[in-house]
Amino acid sequence: MSRFGHLISIDDLSKDEILYILKKAESFEPFAKGMDKSRILENRLLANLFFEPSTRTRMSFEAAMKGLGGDVINMTAQEASSVAKGETLADTVRVVSRYVNAIVIRHPLEGTARFAAENSDVPVINAGDGAGQHPTQTLLDLYTINKESSLKNIKIALMGDLKYSRTVHSLIKALTLFNPRIYLVSPDSLRLPEEFLEGIDGDISFASLGEIIDEINVLYMTRIQKERFPDEEEYRRVAGSYKIDVNSLKNAREDLIIMHPLPRVDEIHHSVDGTPHAKYFQQAFYGVPVRMAILSEMIE
Amino acid sequence: MSRFGHLISIDDLSKDEILYILKKAESFEPFAKGMDKSRILENRLLANLFFEPSTRTRMSFEAAMKGLGGDVINMTAQEASSVAKGETLADTVRVVSRYVNAIVIRHPLEGTARFAAENSDVPVINAGDGAGQHPTQTLLDLYTINKESSLKNIKIALMGDLKYSRTVHSLIKALTLFNPRIYLVSPDSLRLPEEFLEGIDGDISFASLGEIIDEINVLYMTRIQKERFPDEEEYRRVAGSYKIDVNSLKNAREDLIIMHPLPRVDEIHHSVDGTPHAKYFQQAFYGVPVRMAILSEMIE
Amino acid sequence: MSRFGHLISIDDLSKDEILYILKKAESFEPFAKGMDKSRILENRLLANLFFEPSTRTRMSFEAAMKGLGGDVINMTAQEASSVAKGETLADTVRVVSRYVNAIVIRHPLEGTARFAAENSDVPVINAGDGAGQHPTQTLLDLYTINKESSLKNIKIALMGDLKYSRTVHSLIKALTLFNPRIYLVSPDSLRLPEEFLEGIDGDISFASLGEIIDEINVLYMTRIQKERFPDEEEYRRVAGSYKIDVNSLKNAREDLIIMHPLPRVDEIHHSVDGTPHAKYFQQAFYGVPVRMAILSEMIE
Lengths: 300, 300, 300
What we know:
By secondary structure, chain A is an alpha/beta fold. Chain A has eleven helices and nine strands.
């Protein structure tokens, strides 16, 4: 990531740059939630252009920016819909980029973030564009693994919807920089598309959770969405096999961590929340220091 | 109120704690509207989780937090509705409480604030949950009485909808700590429910406004909502008798103050606004120093 | 503009006052986008009461206020609609004006801003009220002309919808303080109403763009809205003649500047964006220092 460039895809970053951000994020942890005071982004403004709602992502960018003494201008849903109707996105970005020092954009359409970057005077951060990328999510996932487990010699199972989950696709790509052992645990109809397996030279294979639960360090869960299935009965039959509760973890390693990008529906039973394995809320928190690191690096 | 506890109900506070907050609020008045500068909550973040709109309450919390140098993250209506659809409230609170130093929540369903508190890492303030509690409203009501009249030997009439008004129920409970003389002025169909009279050992009785207008120090008005009546004619007939104008105040004490939690519809005629009795806008303002006192006390 | 007065109409300002604001805005340019740090409005609060969405105007007021170290409370769309339903605007303004140090209001109904000012304890700035005024837009238009061209001996063409464009009406009035040469370029059905010509003693005449393109210093474009026409074919025929592209500018003066209040639809072809004539995005940016000047002047 060049100091004043954009952050559109995790592929924009080298392994060294990723490790640099993770290290920097660590140093920002005391500033998250105001445990320590920082004003390094004082008088700097961030625009949140969210064309679809995303409570966690928007709020953690806002918390990160404000935690560094900066400030945030949020586009309202009503304003977003009038952009959708009247003006081109390009013009909106051209104008807003003249008001602020950086833009975070989320949009239902793949490719929007890169298009916005082409029309912006200031750094653009992709906060998710449809089936496209969401690089700050990948960075906070890597940060969580690094902090709560280890990126070295990681044995990770990705479980649930591996076909449509943008989060999983980006994470796999980034993990391959660290020689992982990856297990793919999903229903047949939601298998990882072949294209994501090509060019990955890590150690990757299909498995069931029972086969590998005593071996893995990280279990990364995702939601299985009802909308992916032709009928509700099929959904219930399939999704039911990709849920976990405390019983699923009987044979787990003591140091297994469980992650989830959230929101969850019912794929992680609440009985798991109280176990030392559960790291998904901590993972959400890590979004703040990771985004602090990114913002501090990108904003002049 | 324990320094790092939650504020869910006015019943959580002892008389001493209430008086302490009122005193502290007084000291914050110069900071409201920036008449004096304070940064005691610098680098502290408050999340406003409003699941129903409330302009006055949300804005005065935001003004209070910012007036102390802190900052606020508002959940948008669009985000609130996607919480309603997808994620459990418990998970939302678990995540948001990791981004901020305190949470203000308003929700149409009674009991939500306490449930949120059980899932939060940080102090939760109830800003109204349905028919439940709205303790900061009660505190600003008490502050207004204390400031513009006196809590000692108070003679107060509560007028209008005494059946459904959450504000009135909480205020009565809190007032009984101060040996008040309370008059209840309402249509039969909107009388105070018996349960609120039980356990109150103050001096409380039903009356008409005419009977007691020359005696009372405080007239606390509330809205009578059309929706409470079977038909509009019945509403108009009843509501018409519970409105005031300058003529209703001919025999009032010179030092009578009139309060209203706002918004009003037409129960207080605009001719009253210019009289020295009218304190309802001042009362709204007092929400800022009172909430400053509460935030400064609750946020670490 | 009296230091603590309201800003409702450009007519409220004398020529000297306008020039004073333009000069002051110049001094604030380094503070826009945080190029220089200012905290002159620290602990001051602005309320944005937008009863209709306006991304550019709202965001640039927010950027201006925050760029001076102040803070902003935005009314949400949901809150605005509950004001529309329940409470009178007068009461809302009375309450909000007790929370903040100034109010910016935008409303679809002409006259609303002045009415709000009458009920406010703090300065009110009109950010557009229907067919009424939008004085900060006029000030930023004048600032752009002054900065990128010159207000002295200006030869300006106003092109497009001159009948309904509030922006154009206000700009003409303000320009006449500077002895301009004004050309009106519009379809017959969208001509400037006679009332705006009366009392203007400047040099003003109707023209086609081709006749005057080699003479003018400023081309001020506006949108022609489909809704103004009985059918779409008529719209397309008329609007088509009031668009520009690089070919329209072949005979233009080298120092011609093109302005537009934005959003544009297709009246300025994208091929124009890259020419040195195009100043409409810069014009949008100038909204920030101009509003900084106004806020710093009006807020105590």
